Amino acid sequence: MNTQIPRSAEAAMLATTALGGLLFGPVFGIPALLPGLVVVLTTFGVAELCRRRPGLVPWRPLLVPAAGLVAIVETVLPGTTLGGLPTAASVSVLADGALHGWQRTLQSTWPAVPEPRLVVFVPLLVLLAALLGLELLHRTRRPLLALVPALLVVVLSQAYAAASGLTAVLAGLGLALLAALTVLACRGRRSPLLVAPALVLGLAGAIAAGAVHPTGRPAYSLREDQPAPVPAASVASPLDDIAARLRTPATPVFRYTAPEPVAAWPVAVFDDFDGANWRADTDFRRVGREIAPGPAVSAPVTRRSARVEVTGLSGPWLPSQTWPASVEGVPALVDEHRGTLVAERSAAGARYTVGWWEPQTDAAALRDAALDPRAGLGGLSEVPPEIDALAEQVLPGLRPSFQSALALERFLAQNYRLAVGTDLPTGHGWPQLRRFLVEDKRGTSEQFAAAYVALARLRGIPARLVTGFRAPERPEPDGTFLVRNANAAAWPEVAVDGVGWVALDPAAGAARSGTGATGVAAAVARVRAELPPDPQLQNPEIAPGSSTTDSSESGVDWTALSIAVAALLAAVALGWLVGVPATVAARAWRRRRRTGRDAVLGAWAEARDRLRAHGIAVTAGTTVRDLAATAAPLTGPAATQGLDTLARTLDAALWSGAAPPEAPATAWAAVRTVRESLAQRPWRERLRAALNPAVLRRPR
Amino acid sequence: MRLTPRGAGVLAAAVLLYVLGEVAGYVLLRALAGAAAGAVLAGVAVTLRRPRVAVRREISANRIQRGGATTAKLVVSNPGTRRQPGFTARELSGHGEVVDVESLAPGASETYNYKLTGRYRGRITVGPLTLERTDPLGLLRRPVAAGDTATLWVYPPLRSAKAPGAGHPRHHHDGPTTDDSLHGSADLRDVREYVVGDEVRHLHWKATARTGRLMVRDYVDPDHPRFTLLLDTRPPVLSAAEFEEAVELAASLVNAAATAGHRCRLLTPAGADVTTNGGAVGVRPLLDVLCEAVQEPGEAMVPPALRRPGMRGGCLVVVTGRASKDLPRLAGVRAHFSALYVLGVGTHGLGMDGLGVHGIDGVPGARRLSAPDAREAVSRWNQMVS
């Protein structure tokens, strides 16, 4: 332990740890994480205290966690303190956060609600890494070993939510830079010029390795293995309920208040068909702070919300929307990919406010829209030959597009009848669909929707089956909308490129819900109305050059990144090439403008700095005559003579009381002599001297 | 060009991070791995140019005592026409001293002083120097051997001891010698066969006539004090640590005696036999032998050289340890010396003989001294001889 670990090494190591903590940003949002990172400051403070009081060093492993825990309680859990002091509740929340917070976070949608029980595990992790890093740094004196705990935090943050694209590359570069700073701080002063290759090649390496991804695997996340536990109550398929509900049409189900008209309320989404049943694959998570619209939506979205009051729903399902954004008022689980909501406890009597995203689109855009092949077609099991034949007959020669999806809807709406009354057909397996499509040609929305999805999938249109409730046509007198059993329906949705899932309604060909729909539903209605008759339907033109292979899979614009890096490097180079000579010239100009004794001193400083630029060693204690002796081999006799003159002038100016009036001129003439003799040196040396940034610093 | 342990760690971490980033699909880890690999590559670029400088090492004193230090001066000059970036000079042997050399302008020369410490007794070869250029992050180094080697003698520590009193004049075999002898008085010690280099004036004609071979008289100055030291180097006698103490004691005594002008002779059972004429010049050969003395098996404690005629007389000091059964044999040479001291160094443990020098009761006039270490032994010696 001959030398102390420098303060800067500790700071760089702790900054690395803090950056590791910040990489949990996608999980909670950066602002929610910032208060907890105060543990890095307390750790640095304790390290500083131990530096001032070496007697405390053996206690450091205890002081760091103690100070850190108090800081966490004060910043993250202020609600549990009593008069600023931690209480038993603080300890309980800390323990709960450490033991279960990480898991509950994985089970939530992201960004998660930044409540202390969830967030607190990040500062605890950072504190642990900071403690281990500090002790490793001081005990092993190996900076890179001390960075291992911070690196593990980084890896864990990536296992939670992997950063992607530019953010990831920048974060990786930042980590590498901080690691390099830690090492450099431990190694002491080095030539800054030699660090430049490491910077440049490190930058290039980071960009190259970030871009190279031969296996093309998607980022793994721990949350894939951590779905939220679905309530144990038996989940009856809402698809089976439709016919039963239609028999008692007047029973109210739920009531909602929305500032703008809502087209429908999906309850459950079915995307897999095994020939007898439609299944809903579920991937439920706790509702976090706000759910972003899915990656399939690239159109601009607007936020909508409605207040829902459930009266007649017994199952766990809650009426929802395709792209839910938030649920307040009831603990709920959400399936981010399908938009379905499930109450964590009973759905009966739930009152909640649901917010959702509505993609913005218009009829013109929708008319020419392509379908989204990434949505996938889903299973159909074994298709009966009659239906296969039927699918061949409808839409002859039409490629999958939104227009062909609408044409299929029109085919069902025009050729099939909606069953009303009490004798309602039930079932949605292949036998029932065959009877509906080939024999009876009469069914409820259940058969219409199931048949549509089956035919659409046979035609290559990505579609899925949704059950829920259509919005009532007019509000109650008190302004709320009361949804009854009569509104229960099933309908298909097709995946439209950029807009996401768009609801169609083949069963409502005659009885369209006319709530003055807005948004996507209105646009669909417009397109549907303008749809040309079948014989005039044409395949959309495929734009030349458009390819199905996606070139920018990683989502990083590497060209832009390379240009940005090149611009950065160019800026640094320009700053050096222009900045150094300009600063030197400005300084000389300033020195020459001084008067009297200061002018002579300025001349001396100028001569000294000119010679320093040429590599002559000068310390703070070097005198003019020392300098003349050192510089003699480099500059020649003229400069030595000039420096002698300068020395005499300087002596006279400094020690004779007042500077002689001609002293500044003499001194600056001497400087000129020195500069003239330096100008005789080879051009390479002069160039090096002109760009030498060391002269900007005072001699030491 | 070699990876330092840190460089190997960084490279291994880069591979590990890249594989993890590739398998799990984490761009950040891949970028970090790329930056690490870039840093190693930059290290290669920086260390690619080997230092082209001339180095010369000068050691101010090449004989130091154990625990002491000497200053080594490293003169580094740049004979080339290009500026040489800084590098690290490391002594390959010795204690691996490290000197950081700053960058050098063409034609410039810089001097660096560093300390060479003697931690162990013995003759140490210092150098050759390894000039190493490492990158700023210390990931790679490129060692180049340069410069020559130098020898550093690390003597045992010398404690201030008193020289024993002078011996008394011996019996004259050939009648009294003249007082106006050319080099002061001369005491006829022996008549021996002539060897080339002997003074012809000292030919002993009577003996020459009797034997038929040229015989010369061997004169010594009767007043010249003589000091003979026998260091027991046999391993059973002293443990390694005790032997160091014994050597330290022997060196202190020889140094004191030789500095006081005694003619000195140093013997070991293993066969070392050095004789010097005393004085400051005479100290060095003796201490050189002690510097390199190691424990080696020998048969008898009293080497045959001590039994043969030669430089005898004066004082005999035996530095030994657990040697009780050999000590009576000193009686065989006792007659040739005016005084006999037996010094035992070391903790003898709880053996049969207990602590101290035993078994010299049969040797007439032998004085004994036992001490656990050299410091104590020298202190008791000083009391004994004063």
Automatic annotation (TrEMBL), chain A:
This is TransglutaminaseTgpA domain-containing protein. The chain crosses the membrane at residues 23-47, 59-77, 118-137, 144-162, 168-186, 193-212, 558-584. Pfam families: TgpA_N, Transglut_core. The lineage of its organism: Bacteria, Bacillati, Actinomycetota, Actinomycetes, Pseudonocardiales. Residues 437-508 form the Transglutaminase-like domain. Coiled coil: none annotated. InterPro entries: Bact_TGase-like, Papain-like_cys_pep_sf, TgpA_N, Transglutaminase-like. Residues 531-553 are annotated as: Disordered. It comes from the Bacteria. Keywords: Membrane, Transmembrane, Transmembrane helix.
Automatic annotation (TrEMBL), chain B:
InterPro entries: DUF58. Transmembrane segments: none annotated. Residues 174-184 have a biased composition (Basic and acidic residues). It comes from the Bacteria. Residues 162-184 are annotated as: Disordered. Residues 190-331 form the DUF58 domain. PANTHER family: SLR1927 PROTEIN, SLR1927 PROTEIN-RELATED. This is DUF58 domain-containing protein. It comes from Amycolatopsis melonis.
